[in-house]
Amino acid sequence: MTNKKHLTRILVLLLTLLSFLPATAQRYNFINYTTAQGLGSSSVNHIFQDSKGYIWLATQGGGASRFNGKTFKNFTRAQGLINNDVTCIAEDPSGHIWIGTASGACRYNGTRFAPYGLQQGLSDGIVYDIHADAQNTVWLATNDAGILGLRANTIIRLDTTTGLPANETFTITEDKKGTLWMGLANGIVAYRNGKITDYTRHPAIQDKTFFSSLTDHSGTVWMGSTTGDLIRILPNGQISAIALPPAYQNDFIGGIAEDSLHYLWLATDHGILKYGAETFTAFTEQQGLPSNTVQTIMADYENNIWAGTLNGGAIQFVSQAFTRYTEKEGLSSQNVTAVCQDKKNNTIFIGTADGLYTLHENDFKKIDQLPPLTHANISSLAIDSNGLLWVAAQTGIFVVALQGNKYSVSKTIKTLNGQAIISPQSILHDSRGNTWVATYGSGLLLLNPAGSKVFNTNNQFSSNKILTLFEDSRSHLWVGTQDAGVYKYKDAAFQKIAIEDKAVWSIAEGDNGNMFFGTGESGLCILSGSKTTCINTLQGLSTDYIPSLAWDKNSGCLWLAGEKGLDKWKRINEHQIEITNYREQDGFTTTAVNQHGLFIDNEQQLWIATARGLWKYNASAERPRGRSPKIQIEDIRLFYGNESLKDYYDSTDARTHLPYRLVLPHHKNHLTFHVQALTTTHVLYQIKLDGQESDWSAPTDNPEVTFSNLAPGRSYTFMARTITRDGIAGKELASFSFRILAPWWQTGWFYALSVLVVMGAFYFFIKARERVLRERNKKLEATVKERTTVIEQQKQTVEAALTEKESLLKEKEVLLKEIHHRVKNNLQTISSMLMLQGEVLQDDLAQKAILESQSRVRSIALVHQKLYQTEGLEKVELGGFMSDLVGQITSLFHREADPVTIHLQIPPTQVLIDKAIPLGLILNELLTNSLKYAFPNHAAGEIWIESKPYESEAENPATSRKIVLRYCDNGKGFDFHQKAAAGGTLGVELITLLSEQIGATVSYNNTAGSEFIFIFSVNL
What is the reported pLDDT for 336? Predict the structure, then answer.
């Protein structure tokens, strides 16, 4: 605030106010930004967040400071600001930043400042507030010229001449109906559709100066005065006053803000007030504020509360969920090592590096009357069923009792069974009344009035280095060791549990009897039934070393802590877990949590013992998560900034201030992008470049990425997003599109020209070839004519010769057919003569001889008949020939052979005449013999005549050169070889001679009749 009148009023109020809200002994995490961090001035009059995510701070004398979450950039007169005393900052719908100062206003378009003062027809007085409405009218609240509205080139003036009750105006807000509510030096007015409605005479408003305003999520308008008045104007027009706590009823309300949970936050002379459910909560220097004089307040889009103070800089209030207790609250030692609670009176006992403390009803007290525990390095606390406090310290085990109002050490245990107790780590009182002590060197101790016992490597146990103890809901004792894993003590016996790590530092039990083990290197191990699984940093834990665990049964979550902070593990469903990390941005500013440093009290509040004090976590005050930070491209550099981009674009984007339509030549293909998440939290970045890659990169904390040797002739879009500390990808994207031109030899016109050149060259080549071919054709035509004449003459000679040859061949064919026909006829004549001769003979033997000769003659005649009936005149088709021959022979013996069945299976086979005649005669002899002698007394019988290719030649009959001819009957048979050896009959002699004639091998078998097998060559 720059008005000296109001600054003086603030100082007077600060010095004269005598009453305060009672302070509670708790501190929160307020992050303080001052000139040491780069802020322009430690007096902050106003804080504003623009649409990009930048935090703007209006400072007294230091100009306007812009904060990107990491660093400040200051704008003063040197950058074009008209005054370094900045009072307010706002943004219009076009993305321009408006800055109110002690001598008018400025508009900042991202590159330069434009003044709006007397020379522009406005005021050079103080501009206290700026508001841009939905119609893109920018309204300025001034100290001497009323309200000024800037719409295009038009100025709207609201002052005493146009109906405004006063020209000294301080604040403007717009409700959901579009009505402007204005705070004046003497009240409140509303402005809508050119009409002013005056509320200055309303009893809650009259004669009061209203300096701050806000329209909340419901449309309710809130106005804060300079004298501690908080006015609420409901959407229905009802006006009422909200009474502030007594200590704040005369305070200057410098700002009003609303958070994501719809709490109101007020900036006052005595700190910050949080208002909700008709209750106020105060935050002052006792809660960690660097200054109680708070001049402005704002809630950012990530649910942080920002406040500006007088001379105390800016404050970021991260979370109210974590409360810290240190020496300011009565803890003389920051190193808190153990916490437990007396459930009977809810007293919290706190063990530290220098003694024992109690906390009861927010009152810390050190128990000074325990000299043995002073500087004893307490490691564990436990209360037994008798209400006695057991303390494990490096110097031994102590039992503390309350006698009246004083605590005293009733018992000290430093040895057991004659052996010194080395480094007690943990104490546990089980449900059976036993006291167990874990030591790092002496093993596991059981302390009982009935008798004590030691379990170590000398007595029923595998380790002397015991780290932790836990009793589950089934009264089983669990023991975690440094070097032997974890054991369950059940039925007076130790059972080893198989997990991945030998060092088990902490144990807890969850729902359904699941057991959790915090290990030294393997993260969190979960035992469910007999199945063990482990999760670690790869799944989102802060560390794989977990010295402390606590199960929160109300929320069904597991708390894990160690040297790198605090985590919360929760199972969402059977296949999904959720891990939340708590860091400085959540209000938990320390990382080193001590062993056994987590404790849940009777009210299910989590206490955290750390090397930097005692912390308490309140789940109901935790901020909502999941809002992704805003991100933008801060800079684009060509060849690491060694070359300028200005020659490759025409203009700059008004909002991003990045090149608009960037087009680069092919050799300017080395770009570096610098992105910035506008947040104070720790984030990682993911990037991808459409046009080169389709997947997001691995998360990295490096905000810069360089692309070298980008392929020319393509369009690219660079994109970046954030990954929050919870592993959530941000919804906000920063993107930039550009194009790299192809080199001239890869352009379309070059390709087209090249095609034309090639086509032209091809055209002229064709034309030249055509000329050569025409010359050659002329010569060729002359040669062709000459050669054609010769060929025609030769053709005529050849045709004449061919005609003569064809005539001779036809004549030969006719003569051959005639010869075969005449031979056949002559043989038929001979057959007929034999038949006539046989009829006149009286001798039976002579008749039979004549008949057999007739049959043989007819067989030969049949061959000649087949020859002149075919085209070839040289070959006989064997199957047809034998079929006709069988029919011819059986016709001679039809009376005697009626009961005989003949099976003929001869595949198509061509044989020459010199083979056909002997084969016909052989078949004639065999068939005649069978019909005459094989079946005496007209007995029934069967004859088989079949042929097939010989052995391997059967695979391809078409190329076979040998065939097997099989003839057999099932008659009485005879000894062919014996008769042949003895001279035999004419038939036997014929068969033998004819077989030799055709080169056939003959085999004979008379086992079941007569069987002849002839193997001979064909197609020779």
Answer: 92
pLDDT tens profile 878-896:
888 788 878 877 777 654 4
- Predicted local distance difference test score (pLDDT) of residue 823: 62
Euclidean distance between CA atoms 50 and 576, whole angstroms: 37
Helix (H, G, I), strand (E, B) or coil at 919: helix
Spatial CB neighbours of 507, under 8 Å, sequence gap ≥ 6: 468, 469, 470, 478, 480, 486, 515, 516, 517, 518, 549
The pLDDT score that the predictor gives to residue 176 is 94
DSSP 277-292: TTEEEEE-GGGT-S-S
Sheet with 86-91: strands ordered across? 86-91, 97-101, 104-108, 113-116
CB burial class (10 A; 0-12, 13-18, 19+) of residue 883?
middle
The answer on pLDDT for 977 being more than 80 is no
Range of lowest pLDDT (194-203, 735-744, 798-807) = 798-807
Angle between the N-to-C axes of helices 986-997 and 913-929, in degrees from 0 to 180, rounded to the nearest 10: 150
Rounded CA gap, 397 and 814, in Å? 139
Matching residue, tokens 């006291």: 435
Q: What angle do CA 516, 473, 402 make, to 5 degrees?
A: 100
Asked whether 781 and 787 are in contact (CB, 8 A), the reply is no
Q: What is the pLDDT of residues 486-521, one digit of tens each?
A: 999 988 889 999 888 889 999 999 988 899 999 999
| pLDDT, tens digit (0-9, with 9 covering 90-100), for 32-72 | 999 999 999 999 999 999 999 999 999 999 999 999 999 99
CA 291 from centroid of its chain's CA atoms = 47
Q: Which amino acid, one-letter code, is at 306?
A: W
How far, in Å, CA of 927 to CA of 920, rounded?
Answer: 10
Task: Note the pLDDT of residue 744.
Answer: 87
Residue (of 255, 264, 258, 284) closest to 272 by Cα position: 284
Helix%, strand%, coil% for the chain, nearest 5: 25, 40, 35
Task: Name the residue with higher pLDDT: 287 or 525.
Answer: 525
pLDDT digits (tens, 9 = 90+) for 402-412: 877 788 888 99
Spatial separation of the C-alpha atoms in residues 442 and 71, rounded to whole Å: 54
963 in helix, strand or coil?
strand
Which residues are within 8 A (CB) of 558 and not within 5 positions of it... i.e. 6 or more apart?
A: 508, 510, 516, 524, 549, 550, 551, 552, 568, 569, 570
Among 340, 257, 334, 240, which residue's Cα sits nearest to residue 294?
257
Please tell me the predicted confidence (pLDDT) of residue 332: 78
Place of tokens 């991202």: 110
Which candidate, 133, 136, 198, places its Cα nearest to that of 172? 133
CB of 469 closer than 8 Å to CB of 438: yes
Calpha distance 124→103 (Å, rounded): 4
**Among candidates 824, 910, 810, 823, which has minimal Cα distance to 862?**
824
H-run or E-run covering 390: strand 389-393
- Measured between its terminal Cα atoms, the distance across the chain in Å is 128
**Mean pLDDT for the stretch of residues 168-190:** 96
Of the candidates 576, 610, 566, the one whose C-alpha atom is nearest the C-alpha of residue 592 is 610
3-state secondary structure of 459: strand
**AA identity, residue 318:** V
Q: Reply yes or no on whether the pLDDT at 454 is more than 60.
A: yes
The secondary structure element, H or E, covering residue 850 is helix 844-869
220: which DSSP letter?
-
Closest CA to 164 of 203, 191, 202: 191
Please say whether the beta carbons of 381 and 340 come within 8 A. Answer: yes
Stretch 745-769: mean pLDDT: 87
Rounded to 10 degrees, the C-alpha dihedral 479/480/482/483 comes to 70
Phi, psi of 707, rounded to the nearest 5 degrees: -115, 120
951-959 long-range contacts, Cβ below 8 Å, gap at least 24? 957/907
Residue 215 and residue 178 in contact, taking contact as beta carbons nearer than 8 Å: no
